[in-house]
Amino acid sequence: MIAAGELTPIGRRLFRRAPARLAEFVGQQFLGRCQTLASILAILWASSALAIRPSSWTPPTRVVLSRQLLFTCVDAVPVVLRFGAAVGILMIVQVALWIDALGITTDVIIPLLWRVIVRELGPLLACLVVIGRSGVAISTELATMVVSGEVEVLDAQGIDPMTCLVMPRILSVTLSVFCLAILMATTMIVTGYLISWSMGAVRISWSEFLDDILRQFNSLDLVFFFSKTIVAGAFAGAICCLDGVSVRGTMTDVPRVSSRSAIRALTAVFAVSAVLSILIYGRLLVFQIG
Questions:
Q1: Is the separation of the CB atoms in 96 and 201 below 8 Å?
Q2: Residue that terminates a domain, selected from 11, 28, 52
Q3: Residues 180 and 40 in one domain
Q4: Residues 17 and 114 grouped into a single domain
Q5: Are residues 39 and 109 in the same domain?
């Protein structure tokens, strides 16, 4: 390392200012993240208030919601089925390896698979599908409307863009994540059983397999599933809409905003999943909290 005394006068001044500049950079990043979180929470609160207000559900708003649900949820069913089947096969291959390597039985594996699928994989994979298919499309569509002046035209006509454009899209993303997560988890379980039964890894009937799963079901599974689908889906939808309506510039900025919104939505989904796991379990890694 170079000592401070070996530097030039300008170098020494920069060396002394480095800690202050680092602290300033960290502080700016922290304040920026706090501001972003406040914006996301504000748009979620406004969307919730509009969603429960009957006067908000005008015919154009209902049309936007129905079309968005069709694209985000219904059209994504084949993708979810293929995705869930592939992941179910991968998981059952790993289960077969665990059974052979560790000498454990299906009585030990089935509860683990159920909790991993319902509490983690199902909601997470559903969020990934929705963000990849619809999140980028939502931010692109809204950014294009802002740049081309369509949002200003709606506002000039007395149509609230928040009510007509943002709220139904956030609601549709949230509902789609919840419904697709149920379908994803079901597909993974059914595919996993069929493949494992054909491979001989599971030697019990489907009714016995289903009974074992139902016996493992408890209220904590519902807490995990509802929280990680509703909260994560709402955050993903809010981020995509917020980035779309916040675009400033020309049409060439739309792809950049779309790719950024996808990364931010994925980051938020993982962060929300981690925070919810810590809050529900009360445990950070192996350390008990509280």
A1: yes
A2: 52
A3: no
A4: no
A5: no
DSSP string, 236-269: HHHHHHHHHHT--S-GGGHHHHHHHHHHHHHHHH
Q: Which two tokens stand for residue 208?
A: 């016995």
pLDDT of 217 > 70? The answer is yes
Domain limits at 11?
A: 1-52
pLDDT in tens, 232-241: 999 999 999 9
Residues 6+ apart with CB under 8 A from 117: 91, 185, 188, 189
Same domain, 193 and 273: yes
158: left (phi over 0), alpha (psi -120 to 50) or beta: left
Whether the per-residue pLDDT at 2 is higher than 50: the answer is no
> What Å distances lie between residue 148 and 58, 143, 258, CA to CA?
24, 9, 16
Tokens of 70: 């069709």
- Please state, in angstroms and rounded to a whole number, the distance separating the CA atoms of residues 288 and 173: 34
pLDDT digits (tens, 9 = 90+) for 115-139: 778 888 888 899 999 998 888 899 9
Q: What is the pLDDT of residue 170?
A: 93
Query: What is the total count of domains within the chain?
Result: 2
Neighbour tally for 288: CB within 10 Å: 8
DSSP output for 157-217 = TT--HIIIIIHHHHHHHHHHHHHHHHHHHHHHHHHHHHHHHHHTS--S-HHHHHHHHHHH-
Q: Are residues 120 and 10 in the same domain?
A: no
The per-residue pLDDT for 67 is 92
Rg of the chain, C-alpha, whole Å: 24
Q: Please tell me the distance from the alpha carbon of residue 143 to that of residue 135, in angstroms, as a whole number.
A: 12
